[in-house]
Amino acid sequence: MAAKDFIDVERQRGDCFRLLAACFYPPEMKVLIEEGVLENLHGLLEEVCPEAAACCEGMARALSQASEEELAVAHAKLFVGPFALRAPPYGSLYLESQNRLMGDTTMEVLKMYQRAGLALSGDFKDAPDHIAAELEFMYFLVAKEVHALRQGDRNDAFKYLEMQHEFHEKYLHPWMEPFVEMIRTGSEHEFYRLLAKSLSTFIMKTPVPRTLPGKIGAEA
């Protein structure tokens, strides 16, 4: 693959993480539809993971038939409460035998954010291993990789590629299947069932590249 093509694909892969993360925040029709989150996500997935793009089409149809209030209720039952969550969106609850929030893996995730030079926004009041935060962190790492590639800095690009591998394999991939299965079985809304399938398909079928193209310079 040519250097420019590789950079374009990496940018698209990173943007998929960002837009999938947006779907896990409290739903706003203005953001999801008017600001083009679903439309853009569908277009990107068609390029990098066509199997997941089909789910995204279904998400748009489900959204067109729902009110924002209905979607907000479904979101709260899955991810927020106040009662027992049907699909807790925190990695530590799946990765640790004690099934505890803010466990050791949560602190390890936070340390990885700090190692990458990233701090959680003051507006973010949830645990560091919330699914949206972890997806946005992957977007951040890919964006840093792409920036380094455009500058012709292979060493920096490879550093961020290695961080993606570490984070993906230790803290994201291992809890995707049980998490999305809880969404599939616990959601009353087709939008979230399809979101779960889209996320799982993207994570499983879009691996982090192992190497960089042989020749990348600032002109790419």
Core attributes:
220 residues, mainly alpha, TorD-like, 10 helices, 69% helix
Q: Which ranges are low-confidence, i.e. pLDDT below 50, for 5 or more consecutive residues? A: none
Specify the helix fraction band: 55-70%
Return the CATH class.
Answer: Mainly Alpha
Order of helices and strands: HHHHHHHHHH
Largest sheet, in brief, is:
none
**Secondary structure tally, helices:** 10
CATH architecture field: Orthogonal Bundle
How many structural domains in the coordinates? Answer: 1
Structural class determined from secondary elements: mainly alpha
Description:
This protein is mostly helical and 220 residues long. The protein has one domain: TorD-like, CATH 1.10.3480.10. It is 69% helix and 0% strand. It has ten helices and no strands. The protein has helices at residues 3-22, 29-34, 37-48, 50-64, 68-80, 92-95, 104-115, 131-150, 154-186, 190-205. The radius of gyration is 17 Å and the shape is globular. The two termini are 12 Å apart.
